[in-house]
TrEMBL record:
<keyword id="KW-0732">Signal</keyword>
<dbReference type="InterPro" id="IPR001611">
    <property type="entry name" value="Leu-rich_rpt"/>
</dbReference>
<keyword id="KW-0677">Repeat</keyword>
<feature type="signal peptide">
    <location>
        <begin position="1"/>
        <end position="21"/>
    </location>
</feature>
<dbReference type="Pfam" id="PF00560">
    <property type="entry name" value="LRR_1"/>
</dbReference>
<protein>
    <submittedName>
        <fullName>Piriformospora indica-insensitive protein 2</fullName>
    </submittedName>
</protein>
<dbReference type="InterPro" id="IPR051848">
    <property type="entry name" value="PGIP"/>
</dbReference>
<dbReference type="Pfam" id="PF13855">
    <property type="entry name" value="LRR_8"/>
</dbReference>
<dbReference type="InterPro" id="IPR032675">
    <property type="entry name" value="LRR_dom_sf"/>
</dbReference>
<keyword id="KW-0433">Leucine-rich repeat</keyword>
Length: 446
């Protein structure tokens, strides 16, 4: 958007008589307003006071801005004039190719950032900016702030604290709300449901408390991530009304009750992680079979109990990751998991009460890169060939099953009749293994 507007403006300058250009150059409306220029200086100084920003960038900050400060031109239809404003602020280290204004260990957050000075701000981005000295959000943010805001992103700022409610104001155009790895606290306010343009809400790795907020009005939502917080209570059935969801991650909270059947309405969902909550006593949800777009599903750490259902896996042939650890599962592992899930690369069924043999079909999981069946009551011979074990290596985890046997293909087949001890059989020449010579070999050894 900024580039296209600027290109049009430059074309306008090239095709305009010099007298008009001189008039435009003298027009102060094409300069960043002084209050906005001062606000940018103050924000830059608050994140890193060791850099002499006013000396390095003494002129108009939109004409020659530091990396991370983006401006745009706005025509005024009523007066036929053009004004310029800051539209994006990207602060903190992002990559070797984008050197945004760096933040010092003593970075603070100037409240002027949220004042009316930034009338046209569309993107506000802080990445690894507040990592040392304590910093905090302002207690209140003016209602007229952020009317054009589309992306609000605070990532990996552990020393930045404040009530999450401050950052869920009247941002009617907001598409991305990403606040992950910060020190935010408080409850997620229900008024977040009024931000109907939202496509992503990521509030992971904070210290948020309270219950699940209302989200039924967020029809455009594609990503919802509340993971690694302190949230409690039930997940409402209305979660199934956000039918555009591609990712839902509620892991590592304290949600309880039933996993809502309404999740079965999320036909486009590809990633589901409800692991390490307090959902319980309802078994593996059968409605998973209705979610045919699922690629990964993780329910570990919830005491759901019951058996692994046999009938749902044919509907989930494209699934690649399953995490069912520590769920209180019992009974046999269904063969349909091995025969249907040809794209499976990760499977965790460890620390349950599963019993019986591992289905032979599991030995045909050619895409598998990690299988964890530890600490169950599995028996019989494991169906994994030498080639399978070589490919998966240490990520094939079978320990903790006392009656499970892992036989190598290079080992001799078991003999009929009296059993020869392994120490004796290893000492015998290969010619002694045919049945015709078995008795002779034993006599020779004696």
């Amino acid at each position: 958007m900024a580039t296209s507007h600027l290109n049009l403006f430059l074309l306008f300058l090239l095709t305009t008589p010099s007298s008009v250009c001189q008039q435009i150059n003298d027009d102060s409306s094409l300069l960043l307003p002084p209050s906005e220029q001062e606000a940018v200086y103050r924000v830059l100084n608050s994140v890193n006071s060791a850099i002499p920003w006013r000396t390095i960038f003494p002129d108009d900050l939109c004409a020659s801005p530091p990396d991370g400060v983006v401006c745009d031109y706005y025509p005024d239809d009523a007066t036929t004039t053009t004004s310029v404003h800051v539209t994006e602020l990207h602060l903190g280290y992002v990559s070797d190719y984008t050197q945004n204004p760096p933040c010092s260990p003593n970075a603070t957050l100037d409240p002027l950032l949220f004042a009316s000075s930034f009338k046209r701000l569309r993107k506000l981005f802080f990445y690894k900016c507040f990592t040392g000295a304590p910093a905090s959000l302002p207690e209140t943010i003016p209602e007229d702030f952020g009317s054009d805001l589309e992306e609000l992103v605070f990532i990996e700022n552990p020393s930045l604290s404040g009530d999450i409610a401050v950052l869920s104001g009247n941002f009617t155009k907001l598409r991305r709300l990403v606040l992950t790895g910060n020190g935010f606290h408080g409850s997620i306010p229900n008024r977040i449901s009024g931000l109907v343009s939202l496509q992503e809400i990521t509030l992971s790795r904070n210290s948020l408390t309270g219950g699940f907020p209302a989200t039924s009005r967020l029809k455009n939502l594609k990503v919802l991530d509340f993971s690694h917080n302190l949230l409690t209570g039930n997940v409402p059935e209305t979660i199934g009304e956000s039918t555009e969801l591609l990712k839902l991650d509620l892991s590592y909270n304290a949600f309880s009750g039933e996993i809502p059947p309404g999740l079965g309405n999320l036909k486009k969902l590809e990633f589901l992680d409800l692991s390490y909550n307090r959902f319980g006593n309802h078994g593996v949800p059968l409605f998973l079979a209705e979610m045919r777009s699922l690629k990964e599903v993780y329910l570990s750490g919830n005491l759901l109990g019951g058996r692994i259902p046999e009938e749902i896996w044919k509907s989930l042939e494209g699934i690649s990751g399953i995490g069912f650890s520590r769920m209180g599962l019992r009974g046999n592992i269904p063969a349909s998991m091995g025969s249907s899930l040809k794209s499976l690369w990760y499977l965790a069924l460890d620390n349950n009460n599963l019993e019986g043999r591992i289905p032979l079909e599991f030995g045909l999981l050619e895409s598998a890169r990690e299988i964890n069946l530890e600490n169950n009551n599995l028996t019989g011979e494991a169906p994994f060939s030498d080639g399978f074990r070589d490919r998966v290596g240490k990520k094939l985890k079978l320990s903790g099953n006392p009656h499970l046997v892992l036989v190598k293909e290079s080992d001799p087949p078991p003999l009929a009749g009296p059993v020869i001890s392994s120490s004796v059989s290893r000492a015998l020449p290969s010619v002694c293994f045919p049945m015709v010579f078995m008795v002779l070999c034993v006599l020779i050894k004696q």
